[in-house]
Write a structure and sequence with these properties.
globular, three-stranded antiparallel beta sheet, 1 helix, mainly beta
């Protein structure tokens, strides 16, 4: 799907998570499938984070769910 405002490929509905991952809450599950221009949370190798829209080279690492506080 193409993002209507930028013309980039939209990531909404896709996930970047480990294969056996189970969300700790519905809000986290939803945020892993969000558009990249919203607060999207993804898994980067061995760390969870919020991607920085700089071409894909960095992210803000998080260690706890921002919604329920569960350790990720």
């Amino acid at each position: 799907m193409i993002h209507e405002m930028t013309g980039d490929e939209c990531l909404e509905g896709t996930q970047q998570v480990p294969n056996d991952w189970k969300a700790c809450c519905e809000s986290l599950e939803t945020s892993t499938k969000a558009c990249q221009y919203e607060c999207r949370i993804s898994y980067f190798g061995d760390k969870w984070g919020i991607p920085v829209l700089d071409g894909g080279s960095s992210f803000i690492e998080i260690k706890y769910c921002p919604f329920c506080g569960e350790k990720l």
